Automatic annotation (TrEMBL):
The keyword Transmembrane applies. This is Integral membrane protein. The chain crosses the membrane at residues 44-69, 241-263, 270-289, 322-341, 385-403, 409-427. The keyword Cell membrane does not apply. It comes from Kitasatospora viridis. Keywords: Membrane, Transmembrane, Transmembrane helix.
Amino acid sequence: MASQPPSSSPPPDRPVGPEAVELAELRGRVAALERHEQPPRRRLLALLSAVLITLAAVLTPVSVVAVWARSQLTDTDRYLATVAPLARDPAVQSAVTNAVTDQLVQYLPVDSLLNQLPVADHPLIGPLLNALGGTLTDGIAGFVRGQVAGVVSSDAFAGLWLQANRAAHDTLDKALTGEGGGAVRVTGNTVTLDLAPLVDQVKAQLVSNGLGLAAKIPTVHTQYVLITSDQIGKVRTLLRLLQLAGFWLPVVTVLLAAGGVLAAGRRRRALVTTALAMAAGAGALGIGLDLFRPIYLDRLPAGVDQAAAGAVYDALARYLHAGVRLLLVLGALVALGAWLSGYGRRARSVRALWRAGIAAVRRTAERLGLRLGPVGRFVHRAKAWLCWGAVLGAVVVLLTWSYPTGVVLIWLAVALVAVLAVVEFLDEPGGRGAHPRRGGGASPLSPPR
């Protein structure tokens, strides 16, 4: 029986070379996963990562409130932008009109002037004057209310409102700490704004319109209630602490998030988790603001105008909601970017579609006469630097923007995608007619090799 010649090829299940090394490594990883074995150091790092990411998510809403408190107390323009819309709010205008009218009518000496008439003690004319006094007071009150409403609904009131709040902002810090006076005062359970400039203007207008009695009204400091709550003392202390931590707390939160990502075994997955967790923390703050609004309004005293109080609450919470929307958009964009740069099948498919689409546009442009030449070869060599430079530029713009919003962030993302598309379009590895490479240069959308 003839002997078989020795086979020159290895068995089909025994690969050689780099494939054998890679297969052995994969088998080792699978075996380790099946045994659920993990080095103690890796377990500690995983636990540390989870703790840091959790702390970052918990501190995210607190950081938003801290930034808001610091901006309201240290930035006059920001504070005025917060309260300026209240001057045009119908509910606030109505409440201010009622408060100023009541104060002015209280000081108009109608009854005393009638009692000083020579016939005031006459048995027949005296009762008539008393009856006339009530009617006259009601008529004057209606006239005063109309004058006040006219001033409050005019552009002059918007200017007076900003003027009063600009002066008030200088003493707002003292008001929150309970020191000193000023246009804003914290007394008991209320935060009030002094409307004396408005009262003075209404007095002058009343005199010019023929009501000389208004000249006898003394200086009146009408207090408009901005906030009232039985927790003012606690809130005042908390806002003061948040003001002091307004800069460092967000920095600490970002450092905790970065530490959690770096300590994780799968950093890309940890980055996605961190971004979504911090966005969820911001979303919880937004939900809490909406839930607290009716609770706050229900606990107001009976004499407080509910509509005006709701308008003030909405104005104060306006930039808090803007911060919440910003973090929601930022978290979604960071999570999406981290996912797209991963090794998942769907992420690779998206990147392949991105490159194929831009390559098709480039081929069409080349058929029309476009020649990239040295530019294309330079972009190919510096593609990684160009892409990450664009990402860094977008981050710098975001960090240096005074008060970015969700809309600003979306436009920055659109601009970044456009720059990355241009870089991909100009990327030409060889000369004209060179075939597009499969992997391409490194970019923010490509995982490291």
